[in-house]
Design goal:
Layout lengths: L6 H13 L4 H13 L4 E6 L4 E6 L3
Antiparallel strand pairs: 1-2
């Protein structure tokens, strides 16, 4: 998965993981669907953040 991240993105993932007390894998598991949804919509299942989640950004 890291092959698609820039060094800056890797740093941001590490910062978010540390700030929110999440594993790096959990942050990546959120990042990829958010990116795939164009930053406006995502759905994922990550037990570390409470299980099934989805979101939609307000326009």
């Amino acid at each position: 998965m890291d092959a698609t991240l820039t060094p800056e993105a890797k740093g941001a993932v590490a910062d978010i993981a540390a700030r929110d007390r999440l594993s790096r894998d959990a942050v990546l598991a959120i990042l990829y669907p958010v990116n795939s949804g164009g930053g406006t919509m995502a759905q994922f299942r990550i037990p570390e953040v409470g299980g099934l989640a989805s979101g939609c950004a307000a326009a």
